[in-house]
Design brief:
Elements (H helix, E strand, L loop, with lengths): L6 E5 L7 H17 L6 E5 L1 H4 L6 H18 L7 E4 L5 H10 L4 H5 L2 H14 L3 H15 L5 E3 L5 H18 L7 E3 L34 H10 L16 H14 L3 H7 L5 H28 L1 H30 L5
Parallel strand pairs: 1-2, 2-3, 4-5
The structure holds adenosine monophosphate and tryptophan (TRP).
Length: 338
């Protein structure tokens, strides 16, 4: 039953968030928050343990952790209705990950698409650390600690949630029912927002060019500029056709999401009009769609201390639930009670 679902999701604080994170993840979270009673157990984390699986700078990580929290709040996540926590503040995540890692075959981790992509990108320059390989095991721990029923994420994380399911099932089979087996939840239309400069690649901060993504904190001018230079497809028609017009279809999805107008309506309104006109409308919709979040963000940035209180309270609540799950796990696997 929807109203009773326990939800967990999170984002790595690896820099500014972009509209792919917003449309693929955060917007879904806001709907869930509205549809669920406060006591049903919705937890959103800032996943700093995951952020260090690729090369990072300590000061930037600290800054990004705070900034990601501010974005959560500015977007409308409400600490009265959801639990907002910092992953490294709840040690049960790392502890459970260790246990689960002892039950996860190496081959399953080596098969993960994200691992293959990231290790290719890191290549010989940085070396590939075992933490990158173990990333999905930690993610399974995040999810399983809260008896999560559903995990709202973008498409790139689906494989990881499926792995969490099989880890849960394996543990339950061996030690008796301990974990809920989580379902993945993706918003079909926005599960994979593509890069503005290459519609074959997903929008990502690790993309080569800044023109590929729109940050949630980009100024109106920057947004207009990025929309203006976004690649389009050959032909003049403004129609949704992901196979033949992948770039334009991606822009139509973004336009529709930020304006609240269905794609069909946009197609009708822009029939016979130019890409220039279409892009002007799109930029306006994104700017207007992000304006409330941006003004709230600026307001929250001035009172940063308050956000720490919210994170402390949330992490404490999270630790109470996670601690119970971890205690049950330790007992089942045969650790001597401390
Ligand atoms: P990350 O920034 O990788 O921690 O991702 C945070 C959340 O945003 C995850 O749920 C991702 O699946 C989602 N996400 C990241 N990039 C995109 C994208 N281009 N389109 C849709 N969702 C995305
Ligand atoms: N790996 C996720 C990402 O990059 C972030 C994440 C970490 C997460 N732990 C999670 C998402 C648990 C959902 C559930 O997007």
């Amino acid at each position: 039953m929807l109203g009773q679902q326990r939800i967990f999701s999170g984002i790595r604080p690896s820099g500014d968030l972009h509209i792919g994170n917003y449309l693929g993840a955060i917007r879904q979270w806001l709907k869930l928050q509205d549809d669920h009673p406060a006591e049903s157990g919705i937890v959103f984390g800032i996943m700093d343990l995951h952020a260090i699986t690729t090369p990072h700078e300590p000061e930037k990580l600290r800054e990004a952790t705070l900034e990601t929290s501010l974005i959560y709040l500015a977007a409308g996540l409400d600490p009265k209705r959801t639990t907002l926590m910092v992953q490294s503040w709840v040690p049960a995540h790392a502890e459970l990950a260790w246990v689960l890692g002892t039950m996860t075959p190496l081959g399953e981790l080596e098969r993960m698409t994200q691992f293959k992509e990231k290790s290719r990108a890191l290549g010989d320059k940085h070396g590939i650390m075992s933490g990158l390989l173990a990333y999905p095991v930690l993610m399974a721990a995040d999810i399983l600690l809260y008896h999560t029923d559903a995990v709202p994420v973008g498409e790139d994380q689906v494989q990881h949630v499926e792995l969490a399911r099989s880890i849960a099932e394996r543990f339950n089979n061996r030690y008796g029912k301990t974990f809920a087996v989580p379902a993945v939840m993706v918003q079909k239309e926005t599960a994979r927002i593509m890069s503005l400069d290459d519609p074959a690649k997903k929008m990502s901060k690790s993309g080569e060019s800044e023109r590929g993504y729109i940050l949630l904190t980009d100024s109106p001018d920057a947004i207009s500029e990025k929309v203006k230079t976004a690649v389009t497809d050959s032909g003049k028609e403004i129609i949704y056709d992901p196979v033949n017009k992948p770039a334009l279809s991606n822009l139509l999805v973004v336009f529709s999401e930020f304006s609240g107008r269905p794609v069909k309506e946009l197609e009708r309104d822009y029939a016979g009009k130019s890409y220039v006109e279409f892009k002007a409308g799109l930029a306006e919709a994104v700017i207007a769609g992000l304006a409330p979040l941006q003004s709230k963000f600026r307001e929250l940035e001035r009172g940063r201390a308050g956000v720490l209180d919210i994170l402390h309270a949330g992490s404490e609540r999270a630790a109470a639930v996670a601690g119970q799950t971890l205690a049950a796990v330790k007992e089942k696997i045969g650790f001597l009670a401390a």
